[in-house]
Amino acid sequence: MEWLSIEEWNAVALSLRVSLWATFAALPLGLLTAYALARWEFPGRQILNGLVHLPLILPPVVTGYLLLLTFGIRGPVGSLLHEMGITLAFRWTGAALAAAIMGFPLMVRAMRLSIEAVDPKLEQAAATLGASRFWVFVTITLPLILPGILAGSILAFAKAMGEFGATITFVSNIPGQTQTLPSAIYAFLQVPGGESSALRLVIISVIVAMGALVLSEILARRMAKRVGQG
Amino acid sequence: MEWLSIEEWNAVALSLRVSLWATFAALPLGLLTAYALARWEFPGRQILNGLVHLPLILPPVVTGYLLLLTFGIRGPVGSLLHEMGITLAFRWTGAALAAAIMGFPLMVRAMRLSIEAVDPKLEQAAATLGASRFWVFVTITLPLILPGILAGSILAFAKAMGEFGATITFVSNIPGQTQTLPSAIYAFLQVPGGESSALRLVIISVIVAMGALVLSEILARRMAKRVGQG
Amino acid sequence: EQITVFAAASLKTALDEVSAVFKETTDHDVTLSYAGSAALARQISFGAPADVFLSANSTWMTYLEDQGAIVADSRFDLLGNQLVLISHAPSPAQDWTDLDLSQRLGDGFLAMGLVQSVPAGIYGKEALETLGQWQSVATQVAQTDNVRAALALVALGEAPLGIVYATDAQADERVHVVAPFPEDTHQPIKYPAAQISETQAATDFLTFLKSAEASALFQAHGFEVLGE
Amino acid sequence: MSLSVAITHRLGDTDFDLSFDAPDGLTVLFGRSGSGKTTVTNAVAGLVTPDSGRIAVQDRVLFDSALRVNLPVHKRRLGYVFQEARLFPNMSVAQNLTYGSRFAPPNPQAPKRDMIIEMLGLGALLTRAPGDLSGGEKQRVAIGRALLAGPELLLADEPLAALDEPRKAEILPYFETLRDELKLPILYVSHSAVEVARLATTVVAMENGKVARTGTATDVLSDPSFTPTGVRAAGAILEATVAAHHTDGLTELDAAGIPLFLPKLDKPTGARVRLRIAAQDVILSRSRPEGLSALNVLPGTIEEIRAGGGPGAILSLSTPAGRVLARITQRSVSALDLSVGTTCHAVVKTVSVAPADIGGA
Amino acid sequence: MSLSVAITHRLGDTDFDLSFDAPDGLTVLFGRSGSGKTTVTNAVAGLVTPDSGRIAVQDRVLFDSALRVNLPVHKRRLGYVFQEARLFPNMSVAQNLTYGSRFAPPNPQAPKRDMIIEMLGLGALLTRAPGDLSGGEKQRVAIGRALLAGPELLLADEPLAALDEPRKAEILPYFETLRDELKLPILYVSHSAVEVARLATTVVAMENGKVARTGTATDVLSDPSFTPTGVRAAGAILEATVAAHHTDGLTELDAAGIPLFLPKLDKPTGARVRLRIAAQDVILSRSRPEGLSALNVLPGTIEEIRAGGGPGAILSLSTPAGRVLARITQRSVSALDLSVGTTCHAVVKTVSVAPADIGGA
Ligand SMILES: Nc1ncnc2c1ncn2[C@@H]1O[C@H](COP(=O)(O)OP(=O)(O)OP(=O)(O)O)[C@@H](O)[C@H]1O
Ligand SMILES: Nc1ncnc2c1ncn2[C@@H]1O[C@H](COP(=O)(O)OP(=O)(O)OP(=O)(O)O)[C@@H](O)[C@H]1O
Ligand code: MOO
Ligand SMILES: [Mg+2]
Ligand SMILES: [Mg+2]
Fold it and tell me: What is the pLDDT of residues B3-52, one digit of tens each?
């Protein structure tokens, strides 16, 4: 398309990649955390719950700064990962990490709500039929909470598409590596007359995210139909 | 306390006020929207759904900019409201509006999930006993979705406590009027040596939000015990 | 009288002190709102209740001036600043004639503001172009949304080198100035001020900014005071 | 015409097309699992909107597709005992019980809370949460909740299936009271021949979304050719008058001149009662039997002999008290040389007319 | 010892303290609503962990608080038909049915899918979602699901309560097969005397969390003093051998030399069967009756007469075939001049020993 420069296209592609990775990578941990918070009693439950919500409570810049301190090349975790050949700082992977962390509370809350809505009587029934905890989860709980997982994922994805503060603070803005759509939009808004360019990118971002949203709705409907009322 | 200046205390108080107002003011509309999305079929359902998610998808700066365009003193809605004696721009009410809008998607999603989990068979039973739609909602649906309402509110509150980008763009950073905790933290981070002051504010913000979180968990537990499994 | 001053966030420390003195010496009360210059300028153009605007660059002040949003002829350049190359590792000061930025950088990153929108980034890129060093490092520039973030990257050692204002470099002992940029390598760095409302207090405040007392405070924080 | 239903509806693979008019009283929907009983009940309640048709109770039209009338559920003034209890999990048992009363217009006829709690044995459960009840307890609460709504139409979908015999025996008379004294129209789903015989004014037998047969309980149950839920359901219904109460605890009835003895009935002398005599509880004898413990003997003439596929046969006997059915073996039919026109005696043990099978007529 | 339970547990206001040992076969838990049947079943399943005690099936210890054994639910190798169907809403009927088989170790003894689908009449429903089933259909799927898990212990909580008579009659023999041929230990909750008599090897009668009485079905049901779920439950159980199949569709049994006639039984000549004769279905006669349609007459001596509070009495008759109970009126007792030691004849109609009351012994 002519009305987007190559650099802008790159930002679109990168934002999609970052958001998708952030969402999918956060999924397993998000699900585990949601399950633990919904179903398990353990010391430190409240602390875990608080920790999960932290990125929501803190201004994004602060989150970004904390990420930099922790996962930067000199940070305690970052340096370890670096030795293992994984670099997050100034890479798109770091942007994905920031997006994942910012979306994490949204993802976990949605999943947790749907786990809490599952009738334990169905899980018991599965156990009497020989399903171990693991299989009960895979065959009963998981299918029943799919709408919640979907809702959580779409929230996280949307958040990832819009995340700016934490990302630019943590991985800054390197075209092709970490210049996501929101960074590009922000840059345009910083100069007088940049509004129309920003608008173009905003429209793209909205189209992409809305597409994902509508898709998720259709999926959720289909699931709901299948799951119905037992 | 000595280690916080009056201005900082003001920021804490203001953030609380803004967040609480944002949460409570958004509640009725959030509930209505969630209910409509969960239960009603109407043209434009997908569009409403998209609109609700918009603040999540857009970089906060853009949301703030759009708010400024719409609700500013010169904006189409803002000027109307202004004539009616309601000014949002550069007032704490505007900050509350920004926070409410940013937290709206989180609130609606959580409520919607819990509405979708209510067994319509119970609502039918209530209807056969003479309860009109309204009373069914008040006596059956509402109590059953209280955990979801609580979850949605706490998400929105936490988000409001951390909201920065849209707020500072829309209503600026005026101490006592619109300088919320995140804005104050931002300002500190913009100057050399401001980190320690910022840290103090971050700690306060975390304490407040965590307190709200723990409280909501306790409430939710109590509700869950009452509601149990029918 | 009560006035509201919209000021670029990077002026916070210095301006807090200056306005404290102003409040003491006059019976005016000052409210300061710090944010990015772009946000403030837009808000003013949308009718924000600001009496005075201090911008971190000329473009946004010009934007307002073109809209007729400032009091005619009240605009003046208050402060100047200098752009410097800083490093995380202590290193002796160097001169640009024998400094190969690309080589010093190795595979590290050069932290600076957004090169198309954040003033320090714009100036920095311009300077490097003048010095003929932009091309060799262009792909290694880590751009941040404000200059303080660039400073933080160098201070934490995440980026070995960065380009910031002298005022920032001076305030953080974790960074070392490698080389100041010659003034003729970029547009002059100016912090313009202007009156938005035609109140007496606003006029008084602008006048006070130019006073010797204020100048001393600005200079103490490393700013260059631009006389009229 | 108390309850009148005429609807067509499609649900999954089942095509519903049925109409029945039932007079005042209790109408039993009868039929095999999946025949559509719950669906019809839901249509009357307004929970299922039929594709077309008309539903009216007394002179109130609940639904009429032609007139575009479709009264909302909450305005139909129902009590509905669902097949699954559907208690409100956010309320205590006591709150569940009184839920309907706040919406009902004041009604002095409505059953009293304490009476219902007593009858259903819920006294000890009032503060419980529904999740802490046993299956039968839930169902009792559901019954109480529907009754206490003071309905003008009662729907009950197998309300007693989860209950034990003594509890059933306690509740059944109450449904009779509702039917006879409060004149409440009742639509009642049941698989149980005992309940049908005892309660039904009208029986609507369903099969695969259609009405297989309607009629009075007497008609449908005494028809030897119609035994949709098994041979045990066949039986006749007789009407009789209470003649005397004897000191040995027996009540003597007068069925068109024939004395019948039953365990003490709680009805005044002169009251009309309805008895069910299951076909399988009747023994036939050519001569008037002597020296038997059975006290009730009805002389009659054989009207019809229907041999089934198996070794049994159902004989229809015309007696002064009305038609009596007897199910005996074909071997006995030939051994006793029975044929249409033969006179013989139907022997019924006193106690085989069990308490649950007696209802006010 | 097939199933051995000894537990104490507190649930709400109910204190459970019970122990029973049941031999191989089917153990019926019997008792009023709220007496604790579901709770005990849940304890055996592992869904409720008793405060203390021991539960073992065959030689497998499922729970032992002293030894700190508490086998997880999924390792107990159960099939559990719950009081409410509990179908998995995310699966079709077919998927629900085969759910357990993927976890079960291969077992050639396990019932075959097609056979179960056929027996339960589920063929047309396989692709349905559980939400689209009627109440009875759900329960049938739940039964199928439990059976197809190939369990080593079957728990069934009122599995047939929601079903119509013909369907019950189809399913009951299958539980007999499980009990007799596959030797599956079964714990079965029921309110129905018919089901108890037909299926129970052992009856455990519960009352308020305690065992009120245990014993063989014969013992418990023939005890005239014990009728926890109503007088209709009283009855005797006789054992007999299949003597001949007659061409008129009757099967002749030999009960210790006395011939008894029944509708055709699907058992080979020589097979042992168990009959339930309900006390209320027996007529007594001083002389050997003639010209009656009832084919079965058992001579005997009166052993005991128990007059209840009402007009009835239960007489216990010792016959060559075993003890037979008769429930008749006290008026008949004096009219026939019956007392302990009197010889008389018990008359039982052929068909009153209904199909559902006959089981393999
Ligand atoms: N979660 C609970 N909390 C408190 N009491 C309970 C709970 N669950 C059951 N009970 C009580 O324990 C007793 C036994 O319940 P249980 O479900 O075992 O009865 P049941 O014999 O199966 O009855 P039904 O035939 O009605 O199903 C009842 O009195 C019941 O009210
Ligand atoms: N939502 C649905 N979609 C498709 N078919 C359905 C649906 N609900 C019920 N059916 C089918 O419609 C028929 C009638 O169902 P209904 O529930 O009225 O039966 P019922 O007579 O009440 O049976 P039961 O005695 O088992 O409760 C059944 O064959 C059932 O499988
Ligand atoms: O809310 Mo933020 O300001 O960019 O993510
Ligand atoms: Mg039904
Ligand atoms: Mg139970």
Answer: 677 878 888 889 999 999 999 999 999 999 999 999 988 888 888 988 99
Closest residue of chain A to E95, computed from CA coordinates:
A139
Min Cα separation C37/chain A (Å) = 8
The per-residue pLDDT for range A131-160, each reduced to its tens digit, is 999 999 999 999 999 988 998 998 899 889
User: DSSP for E38-85?
Assistant: HHHHHHHHTSS--SEEEEEETTEEEEETTTTEE--GGGS-EEEE-SS-
**Which position has the token pair 């005997």?**
E300
Distance CA B111, CA B114 (A): 5
- Which chains share 3+ C-beta pairs under 8 angstroms with D? B, E
Same topology, domains D3-221 and D235-360? Answer is no
What CATH class is the domain E235-360? mainly beta
pLDDT at B214 over 50: yes
Side chain identity at residue B117, one-letter code: A
Contact E82, E27 (CB under 8 A): no
Three-class SS string for C41-61? HHHHHCCCCCCEEECCCHHHH
- State whether the beta carbon of B60 lies less than 6 angstroms from ligand 3: yes
Q: C-chain residues within 8 Å CB-CB of B188? A: 12
Inspect the structure and tell me whether chains C and A have 3 or more CB pairs less than 8 Å apart: yes
ipTM over 0.90: no
> Minimum-distance ligand to the CA of D125?
1
The number of the ligand 3 atom at minimal distance from the alpha carbon of A102 is 5
Q: Which chain B positions have a beta carbon within 8 Å of A109's beta carbon?
A: 106, 110, 151, 155
Residue E64: phi and psi, rounded to 5, are -155, 105
Instruction: Dig out the tokens for A65 from the structure.
Output: 């700064």
Run of H or E residues at D17:
strand D14-22
Q: Among candidates D248, D173, D244, D268, which has minimal Cα distance to E328?
A: D248
Which residue minimizes the CA distance to atom 25 of ligand 1?
A: E33
Question: What topology is assigned to A6-229 in CATH?
Answer: MetI-like fold (1.10.3720)
**Mean pLDDT of successive 10-residue segments in chain E (361 residues)?**
88 89 88 90 94 92 93 92 91 93 80 87 91 89 92 90 79 82 87 77 89 79 56 68 83 85 80 78 82 81 76 81 82 82 82 52 44
Work out the minimum CA distance from B218 to partner chain C, whole angstroms.
39
Query: Which residues in chain B have Cβ-Cβ distances shorter than 8 Å to C220?
Result: none
Residue range D3-221 forms a domain whose CATH class is: alpha beta
* Pairing between β-strand E153-157 and β-strand E186-189 as defined by DSSP bridges: parallel
Classified as helix, coil or strand, D235 is strand
Task: Give, using CA atoms, the residue closest to atom 29 of ligand 2.
Answer: D34
Q: Is B134 on the interface with D (CB under 8 A)?
A: no
Amino acid code (one letter) for B76: P
Residue C32's closest CA among C50, C46, C45? C50
Nearest to D32 by CA among D206, D232, D162, D197: D206
**DSSP assignment of D93-134, as one string?**
HHHHHHGGGGTSPP-TTSPPHHHHHHHHT-GGGTTS-GGGS-
Ligand 3 centre distance from Cα of residue B218 (Å): 29
What CA–CA distance (Å, rounded) separates E309 from A129? Answer: 48
Q: Which ligand is nearest to the CA of D190?
A: 2
**CA D114 / ligand 1 centre spacing (Å):** 22
Query: Min CA distance, A184 vs chain B (Å)?
Result: 10
At least 3 CB pairs under 8 A between chains D and C: no
Contacts with C55 from chain A: Cβ below 8 Å: none
Q: Token pair of B208, please?
A: 């407040």
Got the DSSP string for A45-82?
HHHHHHHHHHHHHS-HHHHHHHHHHHHSTTSHHHHHHH
Token pair recorded at residue C95: 């001169």
Domain ranges of chain D: 3-221, 235-360
Whole-angstrom Cα distance, residue E270 to residue A71?
A: 84
- The amino acid at E347: V
